[in-house]
Structures are given as structure tokens and as C-alpha cells.
Design a protein that fits this description.
alpha+beta
Length: 94
Amino acid sequence: MMIVIKTSGGFAGLGGPEKSLATDSLAAGQRQAVCDAFAPEVLEKLQAMPGTRNIGADRYSYEITIVGDGDERRTFTLPEAVLPPQMLDMIDDM
């Protein structure tokens, strides 16, 4: 699985650099944690949560694209407010 993340918003609306991660490059335990956190079913639930609009100054919005084994792509746009802290930490570590 490949995870591609684009950010927008933040201070002055500058966003941040695009990040990508091929999960097969991770150690087994870390790979499982990342795959579980960024599973399309999890991202769908986060996207459906109330408060999916970015309310507040300088908040980030994340466009997360998951590329599966057959090059199938699923893209989710999520505001910072709905992402769990451990997921934000994983994004920061990419």
C-alpha cells in the first residue's frame, strides 16, 4: 500500500510538502500499525464524522490518497480536527 498526503491550510494557507510512504518499506510491526490507521474503512468513518468542515484559523486539511495493490486509488479529504492524535503523529513522521 502507498499513502500520499497533501496538506492545505495552516499559517497563511501555505500547507506543507506532499508526503508519501510505501508501507512495504516499514518493519512488520510499524507497517501493521500504519496500515490499520490508514485503512480506507477508517478514513471513510473519519470523513463521515460531524465536524468535517475545518473550523478555526490556521487549521490544516489533509488530502489522503491510498493506493492499493492493484493501483486502485481512494482519496479522502479530512480536516485536522477529526484526525486522531496518533494519526497526526504518523503523518508528522512521514
